């Protein structure tokens, strides 16, 4: 009877399997994988649940199962313990959440103070105390009074000649930049190589299940925070936003290590990290809602997990409150660069320059990404790869030297942005002469030069051996361009107040019609959208800066246009590009659209799979586990799928056996087969419970969707009971990165040859 | 060889299947289902894709497939058409989005104006124009001047005696309440029965895939908006928030009907509705971010779909801006009840009364839900079921009569809440004597009476035959309680200013230490959390009211405590309870935790399934489709799973056959079987491509998770190729509603006997 139905058995793979398979399961960097598993095979398998090593991907289903078991165990305790233990459990979680929030708020404030002090130190020092920065040194003086307590280096060394003073200032400026940046690079290179760069690509990968514990170590935390302060103070073209997210995650990781419930469960740990990441953004921008939406949009961590979102929200708010409570500059300002005196309304004609800015943001954002990739590839394949310190010193010297020449770039980037966002107000100081209408063309020229310079410098700096975020320099580029366009529009309106397009302006020429400061905001949002390809979190962050509901619409339009234009120039944002270059097993949450392909095109067909034939000897199983470090193997009998068994379960099972019996005893994974037969061991309890089977005619995008939503490691394909192939997460990651030519270009870990 | 492996065949079901199956596929209300399918079997099956009728659940996979095909078709057009058509496609979507935003903003403003006019009409009228409300009638007068243009009814009829005036006023007050509420009920009952209630449960079900087009018809839109204005003006204990969400969805549905791309695709239509729902909340509370987070948390629509979230954000902002632009009251206030003059800081001892309020909110919220369920069940099973109009008239008369007696309830609920949120300020009007310290006990007593009264009235009103939202009355209950507790705390602090607990208060007794207005906010947030069980969206909405970051923390703590207490008293929020009572096929997005059960406990085992045996005659298939209106049938051969075929595909196939051939020809669904054999028709192309197979040992919560995340209709369970059972969405919905005793208590549709 069976012969009649299954007469077409043609895939009857025999063991040993074909040799021309591909590595369908190695998320582990291959050298790590070997290391990990060769260690494993020689050590005891006393613990049921494996601990993951760096380079692995966690098994979400297993982690969730373990947590479920633990919870059940807690709740099944008798009497008061049954009530108290779950409560203690929740308390520990909230303890970590709240402490992380406070910690990152304090760290953010401390960083601000340190950066300000270091940056001021490049210009002079306080006579009554080395450790005061300029504002606190001069805090005893009234406004307008000249602060004599603060001495520039020229005054200190008593140099009388203007030329000598300028020379000295510039030399100190450049030298200290080099010293700061160099120290940061030395710290990073010798103590915590993972503290380099922004950290957001790694955090996205980790939240998706990648294991990289070294990235979150206390040492990394310390070096990243300290190095960040030095790097920012050195005046390099970088920001603190991304690294702050990294620092927040390190902090949560450190605190979570205190409790077994997180230490022993990678999934629970990741839920804490997600909450911490939101707090990092909250502190960086002083925008708690922006932090939550960043977690939602960019880190894609809260999908279907409102608990995690709520924790992220709590951490964000607590972090923002801590920062506000400490109030590092005594300004009671939470946000980095508050926008003030926004005029109430905007005119329809302004949409034209704003759309221009949006298009420019999209194009320049893509350009910045492309340049950055080029530089990263060049760095990897040139002599710079061996001399990261020299690169940092060289670039910081160059940056400082050029920056000193231009009035806008000489100050700290955050100060520049704050000034560019400011509207002209006769009662306030006119920063850098931006409000001088006679100097319009000079200003426009200088602003455009600043923008182009910052693009070039940022493209180079983002990826060097120092902590570096890309948000702030991007904002600076956008704000400069935006202010330039704003000045031009204002000039045009002042020159032709009677023109038809300007008829909506107030007739009184003393009432300003165009607000160039808001053009800077628009430019910044467009540029950010072009570089990061985020939408809603950017709008919320910038909305929290401006505070005016009426101005959300222009920001929204510019963000969207910039994203469209950017997507047309190149599909990926800067973080996705870096994830692809480093080859982290991360599935972007974007909707994948196939062109009619089915799963058959992406799956590894049965002919190229390493499979276990039911009924083989234990010795053959042993060989298999030694030969291949895949995560697991499908088990078939006459091409009919029996199940899927993971390699570590097999190793654990085989380790407990006498080596002598291995070659004689045979195995079966089917519970239906009798074990009365001699020499047959029933291994059916090793078979995984949760295995998804699909048909290979399924559209590719549905397969991708399942991997994205269910955090799967593999899907098996069957046709009427027979195994036809398998798709793993690696296959899907590769599929989604097909369009990007430099995938895996930087896949080695930093600091390792 | 096969005999050896498959010797345990014991499930060999023969056709016809057992009769003791359960209806595993009827989402369709059974009478509808019959109707739908009997119509179908007699009409042509020329169109490939079925149109869904009310009561069905859409097939997401099929809809997404159709959209994918359409997109591919658009993009494959040659030349300019290939560029233009996708652009036009996107433009249509944005056209609907923007127009819905503007529409709901305008509707919100218009509703405000109408309600104000109707409510003022209960007190008097304007002498120089019937259609002016009190503020616009008196707009020519200076502050302090007595407005002679506005005449109360007593002045109009020239009644001199105070007693007569009072009597007249109260009679007009009650009579007009009855007239307004009665008109609303008549409109709803005779023209649009779906316009009753809040609408949020239905919208949640619709967004999850339920088909209920009558709920979104233009007629419902009109009646709901008009009826809502009348109901709110009648002074019944209800709010406009939920109904506004419904109105927004109706609007989006109406506009989406203009374009084929939405008319013919239920999934695309639902994505528009999700965006519109966010806009409804945005207008109701003047809180665009709150709207987005409401969509995210309560409607669970944006999970993994950042496009949809972005659209929701755009619609929310546009709606809020339209409302602000129209500015119905000329106050330039966007939010319903802006909180002003919040003191900068709060003291630690205040956490004690706030926690008390949070616990009270959780308990009373649960009580309100339980009362509301009781009333709904009583209404259904008593004579009231046949006299909905009478019920509305009676309750509105009662509400008006009682409300007139208490100073707090006589005004509109929104006005009451605004006053309760207001801090005492000597320079402003003292509403209702709330700021009079000598009347503290009277105020506390009256506030508590108000709260209890509102709970009772709301529990009855929410579910009557009128449009009614539950947000505003809940806020009113919470605010009354909160203000009462605030007054008590303030009184305590004033009585014992030197006590140890109050040592953190400023020593100067004239400086206020306790702000009772903020206690009202805390009370409102706790009560809302108790009733709706939302968290983050509530905090954001209330944060947008207060605007002070420092006050987010107490709001957060109270929301969370209230939710915890509420969950301990009863698991479901008010909307979930109504969904369960109406038996909509909606899966709550909550994480389901099993107690160690596997899928085997929830699945229908093969013995109780209606299955198709491969090789049966076409006549048998025909019988099957006529006998059972399930969505589809698994196909097996000797218990081995061949595939799954939907009923409508079978009907379509059979309809094209000659009736005479049905009894002789046999069918196979296996592509492996040769059709050379006579009388064998190969139906393998009817088999569904996307069928999920799992093992029945899989933990139940993973099965639930898959249904929640992948929008599935069914999962098949196999063991080594053999079908062991099936789980459908209905099974999962039933599983998640097991704890609720009144599931399906109101499952008939309103207005149908």
TrEMBL record, chains A, B:
<keyword id="KW-0812">Transmembrane</keyword>
<keyword id="KW-0406">Ion transport</keyword>
<dbReference type="Pfam" id="PF00571">
    <property type="entry name" value="CBS"/>
</dbReference>
<dbReference type="GO" id="GO:0005769">
    <property type="term" value="C:early endosome"/>
</dbReference>
<feature type="transmembrane region" description="Helical">
    <location>
        <begin position="272"/>
        <end position="296"/>
    </location>
</feature>
<dbReference type="InterPro" id="IPR046342">
    <property type="entry name" value="CBS_dom_sf"/>
</dbReference>
<dbReference type="GO" id="GO:0005794">
    <property type="term" value="C:Golgi apparatus"/>
</dbReference>
<keyword id="KW-0472">Membrane</keyword>
<feature type="transmembrane region" description="Helical">
    <location>
        <begin position="389"/>
        <end position="407"/>
    </location>
</feature>
<feature type="transmembrane region" description="Helical">
    <location>
        <begin position="351"/>
        <end position="369"/>
    </location>
</feature>
<protein>
    <recommendedName>
        <fullName>Chloride channel protein</fullName>
    </recommendedName>
</protein>
<feature type="region of interest" description="Disordered">
    <location>
        <begin position="1"/>
        <end position="26"/>
    </location>
</feature>
<comment type="similarity">
    <text>Belongs to the chloride channel (TC 2.A.49) family.</text>
</comment>
<feature type="transmembrane region" description="Helical">
    <location>
        <begin position="444"/>
        <end position="463"/>
    </location>
</feature>
<feature type="transmembrane region" description="Helical">
    <location>
        <begin position="93"/>
        <end position="115"/>
    </location>
</feature>
<keyword id="KW-0868">Chloride</keyword>
<keyword id="KW-0813">Transport</keyword>
<feature type="transmembrane region" description="Helical">
    <location>
        <begin position="308"/>
        <end position="326"/>
    </location>
</feature>
<keyword id="KW-1133">Transmembrane helix</keyword>
<dbReference type="GO" id="GO:0005886">
    <property type="term" value="C:plasma membrane"/>
</dbReference>
<feature type="transmembrane region" description="Helical">
    <location>
        <begin position="509"/>
        <end position="529"/>
    </location>
</feature>
<keyword id="KW-0129">CBS domain</keyword>
<dbReference type="InterPro" id="IPR001807">
    <property type="entry name" value="ClC"/>
</dbReference>
<feature type="transmembrane region" description="Helical">
    <location>
        <begin position="243"/>
        <end position="260"/>
    </location>
</feature>
<dbReference type="GO" id="GO:0005247">
    <property type="term" value="F:voltage-gated chloride channel activity"/>
</dbReference>
<feature type="domain" description="CBS">
    <location>
        <begin position="603"/>
        <end position="662"/>
    </location>
</feature>
<dbReference type="InterPro" id="IPR000644">
    <property type="entry name" value="CBS_dom"/>
</dbReference>
<feature type="transmembrane region" description="Helical">
    <location>
        <begin position="536"/>
        <end position="557"/>
    </location>
</feature>
<dbReference type="Pfam" id="PF00654">
    <property type="entry name" value="Voltage_CLC"/>
</dbReference>
<dbReference type="InterPro" id="IPR014743">
    <property type="entry name" value="Cl-channel_core"/>
</dbReference>
<feature type="transmembrane region" description="Helical">
    <location>
        <begin position="216"/>
        <end position="236"/>
    </location>
</feature>
<feature type="transmembrane region" description="Helical">
    <location>
        <begin position="171"/>
        <end position="196"/>
    </location>
</feature>
């Amino acid at each position: 009877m069976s012969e009649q139905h299954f007469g077409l058995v043609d895939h009857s793979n025999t063991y040993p399997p074909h040799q021309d398979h591909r590595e369908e399961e190695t998320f582990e960097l291959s050298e790590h994988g070997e290391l990990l598993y060769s260690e494993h095979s020689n050590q005891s398998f006393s613990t049921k649940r494996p601990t993951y090593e760096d380079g692995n991907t966690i098994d979400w289903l297993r982690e969730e199962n373990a947590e479920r078991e633990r919870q059940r165990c807690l709740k099944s305790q008798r009497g008061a313990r049954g009530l108290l233990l779950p409560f203690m459990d929740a308390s520990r979680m909230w303890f970590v959440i709240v402490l992380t929030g406070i910690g990152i708020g304090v760290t953010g404030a401390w960083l601000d103070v340190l950066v300000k002090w270091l940056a001021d130190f490049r210009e002079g020092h306080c006579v009554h105390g080395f450790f005061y920065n300029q504002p606190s040194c001069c805090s005893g003086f009234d406004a307008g009074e000249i602060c004599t307590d603060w001495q520039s280096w020229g005054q200190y060394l008593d140099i009388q000649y203007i030329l000598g003073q300028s020379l000295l200032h510039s030399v100190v400026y450049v030298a200290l930049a080099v010293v700061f940046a160099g120290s940061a690079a030395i710290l990073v290179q010798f103590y915590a190589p993972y503290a380099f760069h922004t950290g957001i690509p790694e955090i996205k990968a980790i939240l998706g299940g990648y294991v990289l514990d070294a990235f979150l170590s206390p040492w990394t935390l310390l070096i990243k925070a300290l190095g960040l302060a030095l790097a920012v103070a050195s005046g390099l073209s970088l920001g603190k936003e991304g690294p702050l997210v990294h620092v927040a995650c390190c902090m949560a990781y450190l605190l979570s290590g205190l409790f077994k419930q997180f230490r022993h469960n990678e999934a629970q740990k990741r839920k804490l990290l997600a909450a911490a990441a939101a707090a990092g953004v909250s502190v960086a921008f002083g925008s708690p809602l922006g932090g939550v939406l960043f977690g939602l949009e960019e880190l894609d961590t809260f999908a279907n997990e409102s608990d995690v979102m709520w924790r992220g929200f709590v951490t964000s708010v607590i972090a923002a409150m801590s920062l506000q409570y400490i109030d590092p500059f005594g300004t009671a300002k939470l946000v980095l660069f508050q926008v003030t005196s926004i005029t109430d309304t905007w005119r329809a004609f302004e949409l034209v320059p704003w759309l221009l800015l949006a298009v420019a943001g999209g194009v320049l954002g893509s350009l910045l990404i492309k340049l950055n990739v080029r530089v990263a590839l060049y760095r990897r394949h040139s002599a710079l790869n061996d001399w990261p310190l020299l690169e940092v010193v060289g670039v910081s010297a160059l940056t400082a030297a050029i920056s000193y020449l231009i009035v806008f770039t000489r100050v700290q980037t955050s100060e520049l942005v704050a000034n560019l966002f400011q509207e002209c107000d006769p009662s306030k100081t006119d920063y850098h002469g931006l409000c001088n209408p006679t100097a319009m063309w000079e200003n426009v020229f200088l602003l455009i030069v600043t923008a182009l310079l910052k693009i070039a410098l940022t493209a180079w700096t983002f990826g060097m051996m120092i902590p570096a975020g890309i948000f702030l320099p991007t904002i600076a580029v956008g704000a400069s361009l935006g202010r330039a366009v704003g000045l031009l529009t204002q000039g045009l309106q002042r020159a032709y107040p009677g023109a038809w397009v300007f008829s909506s302006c107030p007739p009184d020429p003393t009432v300003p019609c165009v607000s160039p400061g808001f053009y800077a905001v628009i430019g910044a949002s467009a540029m950010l959208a072009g570089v990061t390809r985020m939408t809603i979190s950017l709008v919320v962050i910038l909305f929290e800066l401006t505070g005016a509901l009426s101005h959300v619409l222009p920001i929204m339009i510019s963000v969207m246009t910039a994203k469209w234009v950017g997507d047309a120039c190149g599909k990926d944002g800067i973080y996705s590009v870096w994830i692809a270059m480093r080859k982290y097993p991360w599935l972007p949450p974007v909707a994948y659209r196939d062109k009619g392909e089915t799963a058959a095109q992406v799956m590894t067909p049965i002919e190229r799979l390493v499979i276990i034939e039911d009924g083989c000897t234990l010795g053959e199983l042993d060989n298999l586990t030694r030969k291949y470090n895949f995560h697991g193997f499908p088990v078939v009998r006459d091409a009919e799928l029996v199940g899927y068994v993971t390699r570590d379960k097999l190793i654990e099972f085989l380790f407990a056996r006498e080596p002598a019996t291995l070659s004689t005893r045979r195995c079966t994974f089917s519970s239906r087969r009798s074990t009365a037969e001699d020499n047959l061991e029933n291994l059916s309890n090793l078979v995984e419970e949760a295995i998804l089977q699909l048909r290979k005619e399924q559209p590719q995008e549905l397969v991708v969707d399942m991997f994205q939503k269910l955090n799967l490691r593999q899907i098996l394909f069957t046709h009427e009971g027979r195994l036809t192939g398998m798709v793993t997460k690696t296959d899907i990651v590769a599929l989604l990165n097909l369009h990007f030519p430099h995938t895996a270009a930087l896949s080695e870990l930093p600091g390792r040859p």
